[in-house]
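F.,

This is the one I mentioned.
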């Protein structure tokens, strides 16, 4: 299996690993984004929302997204079942 860094560069050579940062600072030049990310990670508190967007790679991010989608679907199905039972 490819290492996280190698896989990241092959799958997302244009910097998708800094997607949230791009949305925070959309006019920042691409060549400055990695340094800005490092600076933010050094300065932000551990409970920062920006830190919550970071994952160790694509597979972790995709897995988190899939888990949340499944949980949301199950919750909606449970709510519908309760509503149907009520009336």
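My design for it:
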């Amino acid at each position: 299996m490819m290492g996280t860094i190698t896989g990241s560069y092959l799958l997302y050579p244009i910097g998708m690993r800094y997607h949230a940062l791009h949305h925070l600072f959309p006019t920042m030049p691409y060549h400055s984004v990695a340094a800005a990310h490092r600076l933010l990670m050094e300065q932000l508190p551990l409970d920062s929302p920006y830190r919550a967007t970071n994952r160790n790679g694509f597979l972790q991010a995709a897995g988190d997204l899939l888990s949340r989608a499944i949980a949301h679907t199950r919750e909606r199905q449970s709510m519908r079942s309760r509503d149907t039972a009520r009336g």
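Helices lie at 4-11, 19-24, 33-43, 49-52, 58-86.

Talk soon.
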